[in-house]
Amino acid sequence: MKITVFGGSGFLGSHICDKLSEAGHAVTIVDVQPSPWLRPDQRMLTGSILDEALVGEAVAGADVVFNYAGIADIGEANNRPVDTARLNVLGNVMALEACRKADVKRYVFASSLYVYGKSGGFYRCSKQACEIYIENYQAMHGLPYTILRYGSLYGPRADARNAIHRFVQQALSTGSITYYGAPTALREYVHVDDASTATVMVLEPEFANQNIIISGNQPMRVGDLFKMIGEMLGRELTINYQNDPNSGHYQITPYAFMPKVGRKLVPPLTVDLGQGILRVMEAVHRDAHPELQSEGGYLVATDD
């Protein structure tokens, strides 16, 4: 199939583009920045999802359109509410309208578990608004969709906006971690490779007009996660808990009573949380020490 991915240069989007290409699909990536991970068999269009002409060009002839564009960090969304509404909500509507005109067969949207509850701030507001628009485009114009509500992602290509990446980076550089909440906060971390594998699975007909949860199957309290990171590093970490009720993040669960529910999809093969965090540590350490080279699984200094 011909598939267009808005936001395909980002953390999750780039992994999904890789999986789609590996599955034999013709992938067009649309993003404000060229993808550092662009493959020879992928097409790149550089520009904003708010550019109507570009969006129309990107969607023309596509069988499926993925929308992973916009502001995805809760803190950033809370600090930039107008930009969040513009990029997340208006950008989503512009993509939907282009898909309607181009007779696209499926619209796949990256939402969040935060739509289930009252936490998440302006990020949650934008995702809820987007879901309502998507459902109404299906009802009014017959545009099939799949809404994917992701849990706590981690893995390669993430930056400091990603929680586990930030925790590991802080632990390696300072021996301490600052966390906005409490040690009892519960998360279901899911490796980005597992999440992208599950994402490609939703192209099957049975997932049309469905709301799907993609999260991990290893629930862990944040305090225990920090202990795991400390044990892996062989050091006692200093943890600074902020217990900030205005952070926008949930503590135990993102769920509040709401009438709509979604199916949960867990990929058959998963990356163990410990192994996944170890990979993050290796990547962060490698970035911090470019003078070292990998030999036989070890980072060693090269002789000049």
UniProtKB/TrEMBL annotation:
Residues in NAD-dependent epimerase/dehydratase domain copies: 3-205
* Pfam families according to UniProt: Epimerase (PF01370)
Q: Please report the name of this protein according to its UniProt entry.
A: NAD(P)-dependent oxidoreductase
